[in-house]
Amino acid sequence: MSFLSQTLARVKPSPTIAITGRARELAAEGRDIISLSAGEPDFDTPAHIREAAKAAIDAGHTRYTAVDGIPELKRAICDKFAQENGLDYGPAQVTVGTGGKQILYNALMATLNPGDEVIIPAPYWVSYPDMVLLAGGTPVVIEGAMANGYRITPEQLEAAITPRTKWVILNSPSNPTGAGYGEEHMRGLTEVLMRHPHVWVLSDDIYEHLVFDDFRFVTPAQVEPGLTSRTLTMNGVSKAYAMTGWRIGYGAGPEALIRAMAKLQSQSTSNPCSISQYAALAALQGPQDYIQESRAVFQRRRDLVVEGLNACPGIDCPVPQGAFYVYPSISALIGKTSAGGAAIADDEAFATALLNETGVAVVFGAAFGLSPHFRISYATSDAVLADACARIRAFCEGLR
Fold it and tell me: Which of 69, 97, 139, 198 is least enclosed by beta carbons within 10 angstroms?
């Protein structure tokens, strides 16, 4: 009999973390590595947020807090939702966790029973299916084709819903594609969901503030208030304020769900870091100019990477609406052989050969549920991105 649980056997380690770790190992061996696999801003956390954390330490805010967030932070989150999204929540409808991932995980663990289905559009963030499996549910994947902007259609959503569907997870702008659901696209999906009152909506809005050009962010309960009573709207400070390591995410939804999530959190991690909570409070209540500045930088980098990749033979890179990822197609490269003799049988083979032969680490598309593609995070300097694109172009030119 295996010592490890059967539940653990249902899931796999995060591919993005594995690839990032492999890139670090190669760099430690002295290889010239460019890692474009990690999804975190390369900027420092804004100074006023860091100062707030120091002040919290000096003020003695170093003890346990309420399990799912200090009252001041919950009120600030309510204000954020009201001012930016037109959503009316009270503090009892808000939960704060150790990153957005914990919010999602708590919601699924608190609600899923064996056989419950969760609809997940692909390409998806790598953790969604495995969190569903850990919670005892069944992931139901819908493919959002590149030809449709990596978005699912209302018809696809309608066809995927069954009596066992409990949740649909929507992520806009998306990791890994940067694709967004504008108001028209989102309304098409919410109209379907209004016809199926047993289906709940888990909206992952973590990239809300990283949108480009004329794209306007919307969240499902904002587009269709009738869904508010069965929607969990998740967000956090990680991406918008360069606070990935601070580990603060939050969500708002029906009070009964929030209580259930708090009950689960009370028996797992308990409260998020007290210092990080006060830092998050400063992020939400303080100056917001950082967001505009970082957005402009990311848009410039997006344009650099899209242009560079589309200059590579066999790569087709759409222009994303947000986040800091591109998700190009390499369908024209499958079946070729690299200059180093590697057979490009699929996108994982492409990513492996690219790392081994050029030192550029990307994440293969199969990890996100849609092949043959790969993901690049352009959350690094212009010079590094230009170098990476040049290496990728040389690699593609060497394929035969």
Answer: 198
